[in-house]
Design a protein that fits this description.
Blueprint (H helix, E strand, L loop, with lengths): L4 H17 L21 H4 L28 E7 L6 E5 L5 E4 L3 E4 L5 H12 L7 E8 L4 E6 L5 E4 L6 H7 L12 E5 L2 E5 L2 H6 L14 E4 L5 E6 L5 E4 L12 H7 L13 E6 L5 E6 L1 H7 L13 E4 L8 H7 L2 H6 L2
Parallel strand pairs: 6-10, 11-15
Antiparallel strand pairs: 1-2, 1-5, 3-4, 6-7, 8-9, 8-10, 11-12, 13-14, 13-15
């Protein structure tokens, strides 16, 4: 039986397209939907049911309490000396960002830092008392969300106080669906785009300094890898592979990486000097390149360890079988592998 190579390439293309289409969005804990995405869409497309991402705010801590940006849902206490009658033990900032203050009326706290609100109250209270000393304490914080989506088990909205780093956020969102993609995590923060490689800390427990501390309203995206290659022939584990460096390594995937993920070349009978790299050309027809991988192993010749592309097919001929590429595809069951996508 002969297998038509162009049809195999076409099947790879269709199968890879179906992988992305089969991803099902998972509702986050708050009810807003964060759909699975590839990591290349604009932010407006990443947040699903969220109409807009609010601007990032300063994380609250006792050390920077005066710089904390107030908003709906925060609870504060206001102490005024020496005129304690103007003090308020509990003030809840409403959904419109305002609260009522006796004598002063409606105060808009939304978007103001604690220090800015204090200065405003001092200025307004001078109508009623001399040199008022105002102290504002944040007694309860509003929910401070971060958003995790893409290639994770359960895309969702989390509170930054529980998920205060990229690694924690991904873990609480069900972990990465493909650990190799942890090298390419993106954090969208207002107008900033940050990149993190958290593979070392999440897989090996080694902190490489890339575990970014998150801020409220950050969007963490683990990319979804839909690009595949196929390795068949005299290798230990023939089959499909994701097109990405294994083991958390960065940079383009090369032929040696594909062989490593396939368990290595089966030495007995493997024709490593006649490896075939088959890919679609500009006209859609297959282009076959013969690679002397033995030269790379012996001399480190980079030309014999090429960078791979999406839908590449790599064939390691076996001297124990007739050298016929179409027969190789059939005998190693590539079609059965592809149907499993």
């Amino acid at each position: 039986m002969k297998v038509n190579v162009p049809l195999l390439l076409l099947f790879l293309s269709c199968a890879a397209a179906r992988v992305g289409a089969d991803q099902t969005p998972i509702a986050p804990v708050t009810g807003a939907t964060l759909g699975n995405i590839s990591g290349t869409a604009p932010i407006s497309d990443l947040t699903g049911g969220l109409s807009a991402l609010p601007p990032s705010a300063v994380m609250y801590s006792p050390d920077n309490a005066s710089a904390y940006v107030l908003g709906p849902g925060d609870t504060i206490s206001i102490s005024v000396t020496p005129q304690d009658k103007y003090s308020l033990a509990t003030v809840s900032i409403g959904q419109d960002g305002t609260f009522m203050y006796p004598r002063l009326g409606t105060i808009n706290a939304n978007g103001q830092t604690v220090e800015q609100l204090k200065d405003e109250l001092v200025q307004k209270l001078t109508q009623f008392c001399v040199n008022p000393d105002v102290t504002i304490v944040v007694t309860a914080l509003r929910p401070q969300p971060i958003y995790v989506t893409g290639g994770v088990g359960a895309p969702r909205i989390l509170d930054v106080r529980a998920a205060n780093t990229v690694a924690k956020a991904i873990t609480l969102a069900g972990g990465a669906t493909d650990q190799n993609m942890l090298t390419h995590v993106t954090v969208f923060r207002g107008q900033q785009t940050l990149h993190a490689n958290v593979y070392p800390i999440l897989v090996n427990g080694v902190d490489n300094g890339d575990n970014i501390a998150l801020q409220p309203n950050d969007l963490v995206v683990v990319p979804v890898n839909t690009q595949k290659i196929a390795v068949v022939g005299a290798v230990d584990s023939p089959g499909l592979q994701p097109l990405i460096q294994p083991g958390g390594n960065e940079g383009p995937m090369r032929l040696s990486d594909a062989f490593a993920q396939a368990g290595g070349v089966t030495r007995e009978g493997a024709r490593i000097h006649e490896v075939r790299l088959i890919r679609a050309g500009a006209d859609g027809k297959e282009v076959t390149t013969i690679i002397d991988y033995g030269k790379y192993e012996e001399f480190g010749n980079v030309a014999d360890n090429p960078t791979l592309q999406d839908k590449d097919l790599i064939v390691v001929p076996d001297a124990r079988q007739q050298l016929n590429v179409n027969d190789l595809f059939t005998s190693w069951g590539v079609f059965n592998i592809l149907k499993g996508l």
